[in-house]
Amino acid sequence: MASSFRWDTSKFENPKHMEKQLLRAVFATVKYWDGPIEAWMKHNAPWNDRTTNARNGLFAKAQREADKLFSIVLGHIVDYGVYLEDGTENMRARPIIRPAMDLFGPKVVNTLVRILDRLG
To answer: Using one digit for the tens of pLDDT, what is the confidence trace for 73-108?
Structure first.
């Protein structure tokens, strides 16, 4: 589940300048949180390591998707990461992506709300 919000700059004086500030602040926020999210996933992954490839291959990366769309992409670099997340017929699921989203999604949104409160 993704979290999002909209902010209308048309009611402010010099909205273009304020919009640029906001976009920089949003990107700085997602960039700030990608490190702690990745570290938390690597530390809390609920499986036993054999090679550490899966744990070391977890990532969280801030991205600017489009002109005004930002995201933090969470994932695995190992091809069997999907099986760790969803399980198989013979193996129970050991998810870390969804728990990270559930834990950090509200924190990221709260950070953005605090920024908006200061700007508005």
So the answer is: 999 999 999 999 999 999 999 999 999 999 999 999
pTM of the model: 0.83
User: Which pLDDT tens digit goes with each residue over 23-46?
Assistant: 888 899 999 999 999 999 999 999
CA nearest 39: which of 113, 96, 95, 112?
96
Instruction: Name residue 72's beta-bridge partners.
Output: 62
Distance separating alpha carbons of residues 53 and 77, to the nearest angstrom: 9
Whether 24 maps to a domain, the answer reads: no
The DSSP string of 27-81 is: HHHHHHHHHHHHHHHHHH--S--SSSHHHHT-EEEEEEEETTEEEEEEE-SSTTH
Number of domains, the chain: 1
